[in-house]
């Protein structure tokens, strides 16, 4: 039997030296089972039934085990064991094995411990039976023999994080066991110097406040695509495997009319689901094998998978032709450098894969032909097929020598002759969601309100993420922005969802799209004939993974709320009716208690602008109490909407207020609001954040204004450094107690020149402002050049392989603060990129560091951080 082991999502260390303990606390609240027989056949008389084997390898794996009253532990021909609530400091197990039996009997006892803070605890197991003691699935103590009556108890010390800990005792007995009463007990003690106010408590209810250890309980969506007629849905759901932070995928095909699953598919190999045929009878899938990817068709009528191409590596975007006879896709051919060195060709040549050639291909199902359709540099990044199948329209990104330095072009390619021609040349920062009209005469897409026409562009500088809807007439080759005065951002996302919106052209002639505005995502339809826009409220505040039908009035999406991760919903826009299709995250919903209190917290700043936000209250909030405040934000590009914020919930459940503002500069709150982002770099954002903090401190009982701290990443990491390094006499300055910067920018000039996308993002965020034409701007807005103003402790976290914001940005700030003898800590994660999320265990470790740092500097609970830093060189006292 293979024993599963996981990297523990909490700090647990069995002490090598004895720790002085306070008075023992007997555990008197338990879930216990009767004993169940484990029969084992022996073919060798010298073998004995292995008691220790079952202690080390319990038949029900408990690394992620959360039993409750009524949970069946084990059922076999000899009976079953069911968990039931019991009280008392002595746990009795029965029945004891009968004389002459060659089998082992096994039983479990479980309890849940609320640990109020990070601390060292001692576990003392009393009683006479063999046992193994597990804390959150990790065995910390065991005994394989029957104890003598006067034997000493077995003890183990462990350093445990705050939160709901799972404690399980596994016990076994044989017929020749020399006891008639099968008993165990457990005492738990704090360290002698510990505060008795932090003594743990116990419960038999597995439901608990959401914590960092619950991260892997959530499911994700990989694919959500619907047939043209809205009848069938392919939904690919992923579940986390906590052991190695991988995902297991589970494909369901739904009949939406009957609202039932007609095909359920799970494969241990990686696979991707691409597109439905136009008649809704076939589904394209790729599967990974030892030799590469193979292309399959799933047939809805026979429920069978058919492999049609083997070894189709580096290919993606598989799409059916309108007559379902051909399959179009993009295939990438990696560039091979002939020299031992690399000569840069373009500004974009720093990007990985920039020199790779990506061409369009098609595959004929009838003839088994595999044909290349295009050839050339700067190939297709997005394409659509005309309704009659005679043309393909594709987007190419072309480098240019003037702002914006790279721009999209739309090309037309004949699928009959191969003739190609440029039909639309523009200089937008972005062009997304290319879609074709049912009659084939128009294209639509989303792009910023204005193009960028060089250094002296006549247009104002815009946040390119505040997108509008464009319609391109293929006959005149002219495009029109049809939503100039429309405030929502088209087909974009909010930070709650982190997934793209949708833009589609329905066969009724209307263009459907999602729009983000003022904390909500809604569905809209634009009528090209009348110019009218109709609005539809979704059944949830935000949504993502949208799958609209093009010939029916049906859409499927994942709808989110503040209370929990999203479920899958259907939405009939003709009836304005949304319905739950299927729930996701079953273990989350079984185990997680009600979320902490949260509310909208919008205020009007000193410039007369309403700054939207949310405020999360600490669990068990008492208005007469005193609590620290964490400010969790981003500060530009996008804003926050009403979805599930997992880390915010964690902090609130651990006793923090959390303020989630959307400062000026974010898309989704109108053009004027978004367009403050270019050339701001902290000026207005700091005012909006700090005035919001002051507003909360003055108006919300219990917020301690002396214990406030910002945390965020990327541009938000820049803001953490910026807020600490502001001139203390500046009217917008706020005296934060500490701050955390994740993969942030400290020097605008170095980020501009070294980050892969630094010059490109800066061309919007620092529009027309360069190190040579306004060097003082780069000095004044870079935290590095104001490092001597920093007086509060700062934690820097960065991935060493980050190419978006290179690790040198944190290097520079760390160097400056150490030279200045400031209080700073710098944690680097090898082989991690932007977000420190390549390995999810690394990601969660970085989030635990957030909590440990804040506990030390905002709650005077330094134990966890100081323990982590033991042996790491100089510490600050």
Structure summarized in a few sentences:
The protein has 877 residues and is mainly β.
Task: Give a quick set of tags describing it.
877 residues; mainly beta; 8-stranded antiparallel β-sheet; 8-stranded mixed β-sheet; 38% strand; globular; disordered N terminus
How would you classify the quaternary structure?
single chain
Number of DSSP strand runs: 56
Distance between the termini: 49 Å
Radius of gyration: 30 Å
The general outline is: globular
Structural class: mainly beta
Number of helices: 12
Poorly predicted regions are 1-19
Main sheet specs = 8 strands, antiparallel
The helicity comes to 10-25%
Integer average pLDDT: 92
Strand content: 35-45%
Explain this structure.
There is one protein chain. By secondary structure, this protein is mostly beta strands. Helix 7 packs across helix 8 (758-765) and helix 11 (840-858) packs across helix 12 (863-869).
Helices and strands, with pairings:
Layout: E1 25-26, E2 29-32, E3 36-38, H1 51-56, E4 72-76, E5 79-82, E6 84-87, E7 91-93, E8 104-115, E9 119-127, E10 131-135, E11 138-143, E12 154-160, E13 163-174, E14 182-190, E15 201-203, E16 219-226, E17 232-241, E18 246-255, E19 260-266, E20 271-276, E21 282-289, E22 292-299, E23 304-309, E24 315-320, E25 326-333, E26 357-364, E27 369-372, E28 380-385, E29 391-399, E30 406-414, E31 420-425, E32 432-436, E33 442-448, E34 467-473, E35 478-481, E36 489-490, E37 503-505, E38 511-517, E39 520-526, E40 533-536, E41 542-548, E42 554-560, E43 567-572, E44 577-582, H2 586-591, E45 598-600, E46 603-604, E47 610-611, E48 613-616, E49 627-632, E50 637-638, H3 646-653, E51 657-661, E52 666-667, H4 671-674, H5 683-699, E53 703-713, H6 715-725, E54 739-742, H7 748-754, H8 758-765, H9 775-780, E55 794-799, H10 808-819, E56 824-829, H11 840-858, H12 863-869
Parallel strand pairs: 49-51, 49-53, 50-52, 53-54, 54-55, 55-56
Antiparallel strand pairs: 1-14, 2-6, 2-8, 3-8, 4-5, 7-14, 8-13, 8-15, 9-12, 9-14, 10-11, 10-13, 16-17, 17-18, 18-19, 20-21, 21-22, 22-23, 24-25, 25-26, 26-27, 28-29, 29-30, 30-31, 32-33, 33-34, 34-35, 36-38, 37-38, 38-39, 39-40, 41-42, 42-43, 43-44, 45-48, 46-47, 48-51
Helix pairs in contact: 7-8, 11-12
